[in-house]
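Attaching the record inline, Q. Sequence:
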Amino acid sequence: MDKMLTNTPVKPSPFDNFFKSAFTVDNIIFGFDEADLKVLLIKRGEVPFENQWALPGNFVYQDENLDAAAERVLAELTGVKDVHLEQVRTFGRVGRHPFGRVITVAYYSLIKISDYNIDVSSIAQEADWHSIDDVKGLPFDHDEIFKACFNRLKLNVKRQPVGFELLPPKFTLTELQHLYEAILEEKLDKRNFRKKILSMDFLIDLNELQAGVAHRPAKLYKFDPERYRRLYEEEGFHFDVSPSKQKKK
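Structure, as predicted:
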């Protein structure tokens, strides 16, 4: 009886072809260093595209949730941990991976570069920050993924609190404007920006001036987190300052 069962051919399942795809996660980590907006890339240490700079991404285990996979892959490849990763969208174009049918889910985050140390392992030979202006010619469809996540960041910065943890505890309005300009890639009108940001009433005037600067010292501010939370959660958040026509360089 056992022999008969062993030799009985297994009837193909109509679902067999649907279980031949692999899944990956790709992380787009934007960083701000008080002057420039950058993205974290790894130099791949395996084929395909060995020795090329790419987004930190890798395969999802069969018993692993997507969010957990994104956190694990980011930590393994770059050493960056404990960041909030927002899922952006799925990329599944046929032929996007030379090894076969691979579908990837993209995540992004915005962090302060000085708060994190880079420590590579797994398939990453190196990891380093690259200015967003220099991000091009990435392998797979990583250029497309990067652009989609960058567009999401630009949208979010106008409709929800984004990026304020990237500034020093005490900052000037100029420093805050530079942060928005770096993300939006546009030169903002100074007068309009200050009028708008001060009217939202989530900045506390510290009645202090910058110290040790060569130019005329500017006033220092800090955020009122409670007012900021209430503005976003109860009243809605819409920050849209009309830019000048000059593109930020």
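The mean pLDDT is 89. The chain has two domains: 16-158, 161-247.

More tomorrow.
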